[in-house]
Amino acid sequence: MNITVVGAGYVGLTLAAVLADFGHKVWVVRKDKEKNEALKKGKIHFFEPGLEELVKKNLKAGRLIPTTEYSQAIPFSQVIFIAVGTPSLPSGAVDLSQVFEAAKEVGKNLSLEYTVVVNKSTCPPGTTRKVAKIIDKFKPTKAKFDIVFCPEFLREGSAVEDTKRPDRIVIGIESPKAARIVKEIHRQFKAPILLTKIESAELIKYAANSYLALRIVFANQIADLCEKNGADIGEVIRGMGMDKRIGLHYWYPGMGYGGSCFPKDVAAIADFAKKKKITGSIFAVMDKLNKKRIPQILKRLENNFGSFADKKVGVLGLACKQGTDDVRESPAIKTIEILKKKKAEIVAYDPKAVENAKKVLSGVVFAKNPYEAAKNADCLLILTDWPEFGKLDYGKIKEMMRVNFIFDSRNILEKVKIKKIGFKYLGIGR
Predict the structure, then answer these.
(1) How would DSSP label each residue in 377-411?
(2) Tens digits of residue pLDDT in 329-372
(3) Contact at 8 Å (CB) between 30 and 101?
(4) What domains does the chain contain, in order, with CATH numbers?
(5) Among 167, 80, 145, 176, which Cα is nearest to 119's?
(6) Residue among 287, 264, 284, 263 at smallest CA distance from 96
(7) Percentage of the chain lying above the pLDDT 70 cut
(8) Other C-beta atoms lying within 10 Å of the C-beta of residue 187
(9) Annotated catalytic sites, by residue?
(10) C-alpha to C-alpha distance for 398 and 286, rounded to whole angstroms
């Protein structure tokens, strides 16, 4: 098919590259001319394993066509995906301006007798129908279309694999004709397909992300209890997770949930519940607890380490998680910002996220390697779960540091081994 993807971020560009790799001719539309020219040369503006290779392959084959012009991409496409950003407003509500602007441009440029427009941008229930009204307002009279909502469930760091082989494909739909077309596009994805009402599909996305965020909040609450009575969070999770109803997957005690999705999606569903006059929303409580998490942990560190003022703090990890260079809502970035206010001197390292961190942090020294971050440090904070941080020579690091204090926010080190080397060690729930 001829397909257009509006938006070239993690969701849009990954989807476009995968669809092109499956044999479709895919236009990918973005506003930024500089990034568009770079994309034409096979250069993408973020790190995602395997994506750049996939982009280059399909650019060369002529199946992937980057453009800034809706008039080039929309008129001959049978299916159009809208995959633009939906950031948070200060209130926690969703900023839908990019979605509505894309809908307007899509409508103005429709030309086929029939087109399927698929909204993939995460948005509150009811938004996709508003998108349809905008398209209908601006489209040519003869152009017919159906609207669909099809949420994404990809994870940064494994976006290509998650796009090709998702756990499920949810399609919120009303038209049988559109259902057949969207199902055909997803045939090569080899995943179970669930057809739902449009509003159900919109809410499924928020429900899934909020539940995963809830597991992190829950794990952190249990970790706090472990620290109060000498229990070990790893043992508790293993014992709890052996219950088949619960499982061992997705328990991540640490500095709280971060990244581009969970914070904004939990805040959005909390705001949605408030607007619908639902009192006692668990989502508002989750949001509040998560925002308190980092200050609470830093207070605990000060109780063990002392004041951070005029201390050199080595930081390992800046990205929101391993496998990505994304620093949006990264607990590491938030931690550094608080430490700076406490007058600490920060030297930080990350294998992928330094350049993005430089855009949002000032007054921080960025090290070329983890050992440079640890040199003459009074304490070392491990804030991202990059596997390489668990494989460093901590005997060497001990000799390089001024004070042998390690805080392991992701519990990636062997506590007993690290203490035998001579470190004072603190983890989460240990």
Answers:
(1) -SEEEE-S--GGGGGS-HHHHHHH-SS-EEEETT-
(2) 999 999 999 999 999 999 999 999 999 999 999 999 999 999 99
(3) no
(4) 2-196 (3.40.50.720), 292-426 (3.40.50.720)
(5) 80
(6) 264
(7) 100
(8) 10
(9) 261
(10) 38
